């Protein structure tokens, strides 16, 4: 509503013409000026300016809802009350039903831990008919790292839902609902995102997966403004895509090793160092999510996948609906599954640490690449 | 009083001064038609100018009048009385309430910042629920406005916190009225849904909308008098993306901060702004600091930073005119923000 035209807001004619004459066309133009700048620019008195601005603000402010109507609306109008079940019982319970619609969910973890496996499974689940608990819709899978494997996905399908996949032609139909995009550059990715905005609603798309966000940025490194700003537009755009089409968006993020000078404390903590003799840096493991703190603020749910002494854990590192929990998991022919549905509640910043030791995948992360 | 201080348009001001009307007293005796002739403007316009001028000189008279030395001022003693009688919004964590002097204060703008996942949104939702605690239980019995710029408000979570809040009130109720026989009569008739019904939720998708909603709040709050808390989650998000012109950003943020303070004062509101963190290079190393830059850090009355201290979540008062700088641990539990329990690892049964 930021680009709403002032001329259509029902202001008194006399003042509306003054706005038009000074080339203040949209609400954005008007609200970016202070009242005094406006007085100078429009050459009218303070009273008129205040009135006009109050009116413009009221019109361009989106309407409110009570939290109750929000809840009722979701329960009534949305299948599964707005969640995509992951079929991992413990995780679903912690997330109130699964990956929520309308927000960005992030998977972070070292290479080979099973991020892509998780994504493949989610893609499959979303494409299933609703009689089997799926979302019965199309899935758009943006595969930046060229790691998507149809074979693996259908294998998962055969093993976890034999009754569907053994039916003649079903494998074809399910797989036919998953559209895989492989953008080669950030620019290409940006273009497809913009196209998506329209087609998401038209084509009954129920899930958007981006695997991974990091590869896009590292590919473009070395030119242009620093990385944080390169992603600024994408962050808000992806969030608004999720919001307005009310679909779950799942994004993966790589890890990189933490630099020595990485900030992890505030100035007041440094000054108080004598009070905390133990070095707080020591708990920070050597791995951190590749996209920085700016990105981390933007995701609503962060799942960390890690391995500790040969066991794989999936941790709910950031979520506004669940306490920090960790679940033991493994990957089999039918995809990712939880060994124990009772999670362990985690304490402290441990929940954000990413361990990577002794899992069977190929551990090969290149600091140069992810940086 | 100079004519140049009148809130009228630049061209009218120019005309007044060039016709020799430089002070307010020179306008006091002139008739509208006389003024219209002198300034070569319509009589209506002249009448408007005179109205504005007379309003201004009335103010001047009361200024010098009996009761106040400066209009709009309040004595420090009155302020103290008012402050002591005002009810604060509890955070549901008594350690945190202690360092805050009882909770989040009304009439003030409080900024809360911290790393992702530390519990900013949790605190925001908790406060939106706690502001509704009935007066019998030491609450404000108000309503809340929740301005969500990030889409991180989870209505399921608000429901959980409301449920826990009702349970706590029931516990308090039975504790308080253990002896009396009428404990049955004092059952709480509140439902979690009532709590949700009293949260007005705005979803903001651009910085223009953010400015618009803050301008509009004045009208909204005057129509919904029982609103006592406004949570903005977060103030930062739209101002961190796509902003080329940093001078414009600073100016817009400054304007917003002023409006929020005025709102807090006029309607006796607690305004809670959530902020993100960023890294900053100072004294030879990188530090975490709240986003939006140095000039913004002046904008809020109180500033609370949430951070990890070893395995504990802590809140640190970074800036406050009335409270000393202190830290307190808190925990985010299934029931909301609570005191920090010392047992380190609990197995949660699902």
TrEMBL record, chain A:
Principal location class: nucleus
GO molecular function: ATP binding; ATP-dependent DNA damage sensor activity; double-stranded DNA binding; four-way junction DNA binding; single-stranded DNA binding
Domain RecA family profile: 80-255
Gene Ontology cellular component list: Rad51B-Rad51C-Rad51D-XRCC2 complex; replication fork
Cellular compartment(s): Nucleus
Cross-referenced PROSITE patterns: PLD (PS50035), RECA_2 (PS50162)
Any one Gene Ontology BP term: double-strand break repair via homologous recombination
Swiss-Prot/TrEMBL keywords: ATP-binding, DNA damage, DNA recombination, DNA repair, DNA-binding, Nucleotide-binding, Nucleus
Keyword DNA damage recorded: yes
Key word Iron-sulfur present: no
InterPro entries named among the record's database cross-references: AAA+_ATPase, DNA_recomb/repair_RecA-like, HHH_XRCC3_RAD51B, P-loop_NTPase, PLipase_D/transphosphatidylase, Rad51_C, RAD51B, RecA_ATP-bd
Domain PLD phosphodiesterase: 199-221
UniProt record similarity statement: Belongs to the RecA family. RAD51 subfamily.
Name of this protein: RecA family profile 1 domain-containing protein
Organism: Fraxinus pennsylvanica
From TrEMBL, chain B:
GO cellular component terms attached to this protein's record: Rad51B-Rad51C-Rad51D-XRCC2 complex; Rad51C-XRCC3 complex; replication fork
One of the GO biological process terms: meiotic DNA recombinase assembly
Record flagged with keyword rRNA processing: no
Subcellular location: Nucleus
Keyword DNA repair: yes
Alphabetic keyword roster: ATP-binding, DNA damage, DNA recombination, DNA repair, DNA-binding, Nucleotide-binding, Nucleus
Residue span(s) of domain RecA family profile: 85-277
Function: Involved in the homologous recombination repair (HRR) pathway of double-stranded DNA breaks arising during DNA replication or induced by DNA-damaging agents.
Similarity field: Belongs to the RecA family. RAD51 subfamily.
The protein's name in its UniProt record: DNA repair protein RAD51 homolog 3
Lineage: Eukaryota, Viridiplantae, Streptophyta, Embryophyta, Tracheophyta
